[in-house]
Specification:
392 residues, two-stranded antiparallel ribbon, GEN_chromo, single chain, 3-stranded antiparallel β-sheet, mainly alpha
Length: 392
């Protein structure tokens, strides 16, 4: 109750007393208040030696010695942390140690009636009688609603929601200890597993207790839901936990059975077989009526322009059909692989008869003469890269 003395200064005062009773110290202050008006003791500081830190100068100690060092000439050197035993230094150390107490004592002296005996007696005498609780009783939901409404102005549905977890916990503790009662809440089922603050829990549906009130905006349900600790609930309601685990295992078995009953995916057919079937189904019509004309200069057999155009059109259709079929079959295995440059020529050799192809384009001819044959078949306008990369 002293003005200007707060918690920090009070704690510093307790630390300086080193276990001494603070109330006894206040009584000593009461006696010291009589002498506070007396002038304080003043001690003059004398010159100290820079070598031994004792009273006296260095020159005096060099010639006549030091009384504290007990020497006739010179003195013993000491470090800066050395405590001088002279009267002035002793008084300074006492002032520093009691600075906190002196400051508080001066403020307390200005308060009339300090120490306040009435305040001290109020804290020393305990007038409250502790009530020993023999046993815990089950909370009454209706009584708590009335009490919370009168004392804290809680709505009924809010009070019910707050007390519900206490009711379930009390009933689980009682059932775990072996006490069962008809008033205890009945667990309907476990909804699902939960984790609350790192602890495994169950989300439980309970039978709605008597006098339980829902909020106006909530639908009327025949059950209430809470989240309870898994180990405590299993000890209190082992049959409900066993039923939940059995249902969970049945669901898991059904899932495994459905996986086994699923038909296996058909394997992709052999790519070579598909290509062989497509090529065997091709039917090329040959024109026997028109004979090719051989060029005297180059030795290449040429056909009339109309026939060349007609046969090139047929050849183009055959090649495109084979290319699209091959792309569709090979795409699942290597969709990103670029087509080979010589693939169009190999397709022409395998699909067209040797009588139609010129000698430079037969199987025994070289690759260098393929450009002239390609020009003869009018295949310049075909985009081979787009043909073999595009999906059918």
């Amino acid at each position: 109750g002293v003005p200007g003395v707060g918690k920090e200064q009070a704690l510093k005062l307790i630390g300086t007393l080193q276990g001494q009773n603070l109330l006894q110290r206040f009584e000593q202050w009461k006696e010291q208040f009589r002498y506070d008006n007396n002038p304080p003791l003043v001690v003059k500081r004398v010159i100290h030696c820079s070598e031994c830190h004792h009273p006296g100068s260095y020159k005096d100690h060099e010639h006549s010695g030091c009384k504290f060092c007990e020497s006739t000439r010179y003195c013993k050197p000491n470090d800066s942390k050395y405590c001088c035993p002279c009267e002035w230094h002793q008084l300074e150390r006492v002032k520093q140690a009691s600075a906190v107490e002196d400051n508080i004592r001066k403020k307390a002296n200005s308060c009339e009636g300090f120490p306040f005996s009435e305040v001290i007696q109020e804290f020393l005498v305990n007038k409250n009688k502790l009530i020993k609780i023999k046993e815990c009783q089950r909370p009454n939901l209706l009584s708590f609603q009335i009490f919370a409404s009168e004392k804290m102005e809680w709505p009924k549905h809010y009070a019910c929601k707050k007390l519900l977890t206490l009711l379930t916990h009390y009933d689980m503790i009682q059932r775990k200890s072996g006490y069962t009662d008809s008033k205890q809440l009945q667990a309907i089922r476990i909804v699902k597993t939960r984790v609350k603050n790192g602890i495994p829990c169950f989300e439980i549906e309970w039978q709605k207790p008597e006098h339980y009130v829902n909020a106006e905006d909530e639908p009327e349900e025949l059950f209430v839901v809470t989240v309870e600790e898994e180990s405590l609930f299993q000890a209190a309601y082992p049959d409900v936990v066993a039923l939940y685990q059995m249902e969970k295992s049945e669901v898991l078995k059904k899932k495994q059975k459905n996986k086994k009953d699923r038909p296996k995916e058909n394997k992709l057919p052999n790519v070579c077989d598909e290509v062989s079937d497509l090529l065997s189904q091709m039917n090329l019509k040959s024109r026997c009526g028109i004979l090719p004309v051989q060029d005297s200069t180059s030795g290449i057999k040429t056909l009339p322009k109309g026939e060349i155009h007609q046969r090139s059109t047929e050849s183009k259709g055959v090649v495109l059909a084979a290319a699209s079929s091959l792309t569709a079959v090979q795409r699942p295995t290597s969709a990103a692989a670029p087509p080979q440059p010589a693939l169009p020529y190999l397709l022409l050799q395998n699909t067209l008869p040797d009588s139609i192809l010129p000698p430079q384009f037969t199987k025994n001819s070289g690759i260098s003469s393929s450009s002239s044959v390609t020009a003869g078949l009018q295949l310049d306008n075909i985009d081979w890269e787009e043909t073999f990369s595009a999906s059918p």
